[in-house]
Amino acid sequence: MLEKIDLSKKVDKNTFKQVMETESGRLAVLQRECKAAGIPVMIVFEGMGAAGKGVQINRLIQALDPRGFSVYATNTSNEEEQMRPFLWRYWTKTPAKGRIAIFDRSWYSIVQRDRFDCPDKELDLEGAFQDILSFEKQLSDDGTVIIKLFLHISREEQRKRFKKLDDSKESSWRVNKQDWKRNKEYDAYLKINEEMLENTDTEFAPWTIIESTDRDYAAMKIMTTVADRLAYVLEKKREEEKVSSKKKKDQMPGERFHNGVLSGIDLSKSLTKDEYKKELDRLQRRLEKLHNELYRLRIPVVLGFEGWDAGGKGGAIKRLTSHLDPRGYQVNPTASPNDIEKVHHYLWRFWNNMPKAGHIAIFDRTWYGRVMVERIEGFCTEAEWKRAYQEINEMESHMANYGAVILKFWLHIDKDEQERRFKERMENPAKQWKITEEDWRNREKWDQYEQAVDEMLVRTSTTYAPWIVVEGNSKYYARVKVLRTVVKALEAKIKEVKKQNS
């Protein structure tokens, strides 16, 4: 494909000047319209070395309001980034609604430069492509415009530009041994890039090839491509809003039958106080030792806690962390999203708190709010919560592929036990802060929540990120079950990693 591109395209100075003046003005207007419409934009610059990415980014942003965009240069990942899944560094930089994020190289490095530079490094290529497609699809479905530009030059042009850079003391640092190696093995590197383009060129995030021999032609095409895409998206959004304002959505009939996972849970399970104390002490001591092993072997752990109000999440987390080194774990309480979080993809705030290798992240309430409270209370659309099952599975799969242990706990109690605990909290001055009017209101929607939870458990419990339903009417039994489950999972993972390293 790339070898067939006509790289001799040029533009005369007059045409270039006229087009750039027109398109610059248009792009400035489109940026303001995207901001007003709350449309986030990601512009990716990839391509062959010395194709002019930096120059072209600088030309493009001259037309933009600098208060509305950020530019990220993706170099070799630092220590912090290497200790997390490769998409983490990009998820944390996804733009808020109405802003533009421009990437000088991007998440494609793993299937492009890194693949060529480190051929002996183990890479699940198919899995990496799938992770990238999932990342872009999730953002696109949420309204992000993704514009991907591949700047292309010939081997000869690249060699000429490398030599010019190398001959100058001011710019020689910009060319290294790997650059020259890619030029020497140009055809092999070109093939890797072709595979990248073929596997990731989609309707929602298409690639545009930029013939970059003539820098003016490249700048003109980039400016026009970006402006045309934004104009198209804005017009499409306006048309969709017109249609939605005229046409009422047909209400889907509720399901008469659903998977009754929770209805089959035996809530009579319990432990005596002596049994509880003895087992709790044993498990906490074991966790203390396992935590050291996790850090030594650089195994990340993600523990998510969901459950009914007053289900015992806080108590379970407190017993879980009591013997852990506080430098090696972080408890993340999840409240309603704040103003900053609301203008990002709903998974953005959770990606920001994912653990680095060797650390534990504990979430008191999680990303599953999308398919529970947001679904029931109407804080998201039906289309949004329905596609969230796949989005969540893909996020957890990416974490698991990186080597993370992922466990998700649903702390289950019955309605009578919840009422008893609510009243106990109201009567205890030290616990009154735990109970709110909203907690009582949510009880009125118990059946709706139970149906949503049943569907969530069925659709998102996977081999790599299983749900564990914890019988919670007995706090003693629930806390011990949580600790036992964590200990067992960590022991299995540590054994697996040691075997791989031996």
What does the secondary structure layout of this molecule look like, with pairings?
Elements: H1 13-37, E1 41-47, H2 53-61, E2 69-73, H3 79-82, H4 88-91, E3 100-104, H5 113-117, H6 125-141, E4 145-152, H7 155-166, H8 177-184, H9 186-200, E5 207-211, H10 215-246, H11 273-297, E6 301-307, H12 313-321, E7 329-333, H13 339-342, H14 348-351, E8 360-364, H15 373-377, H16 382-402, E9 405-412, H17 415-427, H18 437-443, H19 446-460, E10 467-471, H20 475-501
Parallel strand pairs: 1-3, 1-4, 2-3, 4-5, 6-8, 6-9, 7-8, 9-10
Question: Which labels suit this protein?
Answer:
502 residues, 20 helices, 2 domains, 10 strands, 5-stranded parallel beta sheet, Rossmann fold
Give your account of this protein's structure.
There is one protein chain. The chain has 502 residues and is of the alpha/beta class. The chain has two domains: 2-241, P-loop containing nucleotide triphosphate hydrolases (Rossmann fold); 266-501, P-loop containing nucleotide triphosphate hydrolases (Rossmann fold, 3-Layer(aba) Sandwich). It is built from 20 helices and ten strands. It has helices at 13-37, 53-61, 79-82, 88-91, 113-117, 125-141, 155-166, 177-184, 186-200, 215-246, 273-297, 313-321, 339-342, 348-351, 373-377, 382-402, 415-427, 437-443, 446-460, 475-501, and strands at residues 41-47, 69-73, 100-104, 145-152, 207-211, 301-307, 329-333, 360-364, 405-412, 467-471. The model has no long low-confidence stretch (mean pLDDT 93).
